[in-house]
Design a protein that fits this description.
This protein is mostly beta strands. The chain is globular, with a radius of gyration of 13 Å. It starts with a strand and ends with a strand.
């Protein structure tokens, strides 16, 4: 099992920045892909950004390209999501997820965190 704990969410104004963190514990062996997903009220969960074990491969939703950056520090078992130029439409619960392997468009990850709320006011 893999346990994931997100942090860093909050209420910000449009144009601001936030950095989300996700600390992983448990059976986080080599090769695990990590991802950030989000779900807004009344909408389906969507992929925001995913990253492979080495950090050499990433994939982003078109809506966040150029504004968000996913990264990871395997020594700390932590993945980050740097969010810049936030927009009201970025408001959602953001979830961290882990999966034993990386595929750029995979969305049914095996392990999920509890989520952290991000609210962007206009």
């Amino acid at each position: 099992q893999v346990q994931l704990v997100e942090s860093g969410g909050g209420l910000v104004q449009a144009g601001a920045s936030l950095r989300l963190s996700c600390a992983a514990s448990g059976r986080t062996g080599s090769g695990y892909a990590m991802g950030w997903f989000r779900q807004a009220p009344g909408k389906e969960r969507e992929m925001v950004a995913v990253i492979n074990w080495t950090g050499g491969y990433t994939n982003y939703a078109d809506s966040v390209k150029g504004r968000f950056t996913i990264s990871r520090d395997n020594a700390k078992n932590t993945v980050y999501l740097q969010m810049n130029s936030l927009k009201p439409e970025d408001t959602a619960v953001y979830y961290c997820a882990a999966h034993p392997y990386y595929q750029p468009r995979l969305t049914n990850y095996d392990f999920w965190g509890q989520g952290t709320q991000v609210t962007v006011s206009s």
